[in-house]
Amino acid sequence: MSPELMRGQQYDIKSDIWAIGCVLYELLSLRRSFDASNPLKLVWEIVQKEIDTDSLDAMYSSEMKSLVRQLLSKDPEKRPTAVELLRHLVTEATNETMEKKVWSLNASSRKARIASSTATETIPVVTSKTSEVYYWGGGRLTPYKLEIFKKGNAALQVAAGNLHFAAVTVEKELFTWANVQGGQALVGQLGHGDTACYKNPKKVESLQNVRAVSCGEEFTACVTDDGELYTFGSDYYGCLGCDNAEGDEVTEPILVELFSSKPVEQVSCGESHIVALTKDKEVYSWGCGEFGRLGLGSEDDHSLPQKVHICGNKTICSVCAGFDGTFFVTTDGKVLACGSNENNKLGFNTVTKGLKKRQVKESYDIPCKDIPAIVKPLNRYHIMSVSTGKDHSAVIDDTGRLITFGLNKHGQLGVGDCKPRSGVNKISGVLSSKQVLRAACGDGFTVIATKDNQIYSFGNVESGRLGIPVDPSLTHRKKMAVPTPKPIFGSLHFVSDVSCRHWHCIVIVEKVLKSKTIRSPHQDSFTSSRGSQLSEPSQDDSVFTSESYISDNADSEGAVTCNEDEQDVLAITGSSDTNSRKGDDSMPPWLAEELENAEFIPLESESDSPPDPINPSVINQPPHDLQHLDCPTHNPAVAPPVAMLSTSHDQRSLDASSISVGFATSQVTHGIPFSVPPLCLDGLSGSGDSIRLQMIRDRERDEELEALNQRVIHLEAENKKVRKYTCFNHLLPGNPVSSTMGFYTEPGCLKWDKRAGP
């Protein structure tokens, strides 16, 4: 512990320099730097006592003693930095030696990393997946699938408003529709040129190349690929950014002129205001200014975009507009906010806890902020994303932890109860071992998606907001609330986007149906050369249907996608050097050598009786010369030809004709169920058939290897029979072995004589 830490100061890198000085002093003096009989005295010595470097052995140079003195200086500013330490006269001469030593010590681990990184390369070949859009709430208790968003019209991003929805497809088209209850009227927020209520998704014909969309209470904003911002719907609070030039109701998209020269990167719509982030990382806001939600230092309304000044020269990477507040996330993981902090939904409130046994908590409430201010209770987290609802908010840090704060009347904070919470809450329990990827907050409920492809919801059950049918008698304290995260779907699905507003929720879910990979080893291997893997997930057991689409483009993970009828024939070939070794990999050396040295011994019968007539030359052949037996080759039915190996174009291949004829003959003669089909590769050529050609070659290579394995089994069986007949021949009359073992023979028989002895 350094002196500054003992004084209660903040940890600094100079404390590590102090630790180096303590270790160096102990190495030089062979005694402790600070030694005391009790902790209090030890602290006093660290803070007050000066190290006597003159007491070090005279064998050490003055430069070494001076270095120790600098490292153990009580003032952190007087200690050298790590760079200065390496450039010191004492260490500079040994830097090269130390680097070489460290390099040699790390050799084993470095080789292991290189071997693991280059041993196998996995290339995705075919990936088919579903992409579907579901929404629930507003009286719909369970998720409802929108059939229009499938196949080539899959959705990439969705947004929910109070009465309407919007979705951007892979074709960069914008679709909008409404879910009106109780005869509420629309004001043009669908952008179709009228105020009609379209309950099914309808394309906005006047917009093209849409990249992102966001929905407010009665208006919609979208961003194109060029960074242009379009708005439509109600302009009551000036949310359309056109200074009310088009009237209070705009039924078709209009361009916000300011952003023609300032391309927009992200747009977020609150209940009655809009916040936009440009590609230059500038923030603009406009609309209703109540409670200071615009971050402009006042509560005035603005019908034109106004630049928001961020304190501390922070760089904003994302924005989130809520019911009556706004969040700003910086590049270093800090969160700023402005607007209403009612129920601590912005997270500003700090809590002071009592000590010892008495639980004393005191909360300091902050009603609102009219300029962006840092949310200090979140400073200990590195925040990646923010979502806010009407009375509560949720953030996700870089480790996937979910932190919630705000009103907990319906259990929307996910803490397991409906009790009021003063500060920020890190959610554990069901989510303790999970990483949260996305979160969305609505009016009294929260929906999250985890890394293990699960979707959870918690909070107010009313009107189907959670997407699960819940018995009111089983809810927390007989209220319409679920205070702990509950899964929505029964099977695993990846959530690419989710949005909640009011009592609605809409999600885009994806599920991989089939993924095939080829592993291409860098070293020749008989087993790994056939290492293609095909994985298929379990059947879908949730509300999701089996209908799927297969994208013609690469997905977000870089996988190659194609049509279902092409999955069995598509493959990705390896590098040229890998292809050049396929001939060597097709047959191992031990099998080639054994086939070259193999001989066939003709057998006319598979019974255990000796062959008739008996060839005397064979009978008198000694056991160790059996490998030189001369087999008659004039009868092809008795001795099928051996598959000969030939070399062509530096690759080892099989003579297909000899294999086919020989194995077919062997099958007829001995009843062996195997054959090798002839190679049929002449008709496939050209770049268009290269993938199919590779698949056929792999399949034929596997068939050849299987046939060769069957042939080896057949040879081993024949050799076993030869050994039996050889034993029989040694026991025939005149053979000294028969008399020694107690056998006597008669013509055509072999019997055991119990009277005979050794």
TrEMBL record:
Top enzyme class: transferase
Keyword Ribonucleoprotein among record annotations: no
GO MF term set: ATP binding; metal ion binding; protein serine/threonine kinase activity
Cofactor(s) in the UniProt record: Mg(2+)
Keywords: ATP-binding, Cytoplasm, Kinase, Magnesium, Metal-binding, Nucleotide-binding, Phosphoprotein, Repeat, Serine/threonine-protein kinase, Transferase
Domain Protein kinase residue range list: 1-91
Principal location class: cytoplasm
Mapped RCC repeat ranges: 172-226, 227-280, 281-332, 333-399, 400-452, 453-511
Protein name as it appears in the record: non-specific serine/threonine protein kinase
Organism per entry: Acanthaster planci
